[in-house]
Specification:
Largest sheet: 3 strands, antiparallel
Radius of gyration: 21 Å
Distance between the termini: 58 Å
Structural class: mainly alpha
Number of strands: 3
Order of helices and strands: HHHEHHEEHHH
Strand order of the largest sheet: 1-3-2
CATH architecture of the domain at 44-117 and 176-186: Orthogonal Bundle
Number of helices: 8
Length: 188
């Protein structure tokens, strides 16, 4: 039996089609991240011990693997000089390290260290604790519905990424520079 979900109060101005109205409500609900919520989230990501740009560097390296400095600058949309200063600061904290390529010593790749990876484990642990407290406020039916819905969203995202990759679009660009990448390409 399919449960009918009515739109949130005040969301009646959307499309007349019931599916489109629900989809519109879903989008409203998912994008409803007010400035106060954003501020709290950003301020508590790593309890203020890292700047947002430093967290961004660590996130890029976690997602892409080691990168050449120029590729990291491109990913951050900053100059090569700026990324050098950013990497210098987080390298001093032991979160990243620079290593020369073993096949092409001209390439310097920035690697996430074990201590840098621990930053994300710490963030995940705190996030999990907050989500556990949130789950305590929900009924079993609400939790089950959210699990079903979130799994459906994840599956839909995977299909979109696969479709984009197959079409040569989103998901195909990978900024990582490996040792097989010529220096002129990795350091462009």
């Amino acid at each position: 039996m399919t449960e009918t979900i009515s739109p949130r109060p005040g969301v009646g101005s959307g499309p007349a089609d019931p599916r489109a109205a629900l989809a519109d409500d879903l989008i409203e609900t998912l994008e409803d991240w007010n400035p106060t919520d954003r501020l709290v989230t950003l301020a508590t990501l790593h309890q203020g011990s890292l700047s947002l740009v430093q967290l961004m560097v660590l996130t890029i390296l976690e997602a892409s693997g080691p990168l050449a400095m120029t590729r990291l600058a491109e990913a951050l949309d900053v100059s090569d000089a700026s990324v050098t200063g950013i990497v210098d600061r987080i390298e001093r904290r032991g979160l990243v390290e620079r290593r020369r390529g073993s096949t092409d010593r001209r390439i310097v790749l920035v690697h996430l260290t074990e201590r840098g990876a621990a930053v994300f484990r710490d963030i995940r642990a705190r996030r999990r604790a907050k989500l556990a407290a949130l789950a305590e406020e929900l009924s079993d039916d609400e939790i089950a519905g959210l699990v079903t819905g979130l799994r459906a969203v994840d599956a839909a995202l995977q299909r979109l990424h696969a479709r984009g990759a197959a079409e040569g679009g989103a998901g195909t660009d990978h900024p990582a520079a490996t040792e097989d990448t010529p220096a002129r390409e990795a350091n462009r």
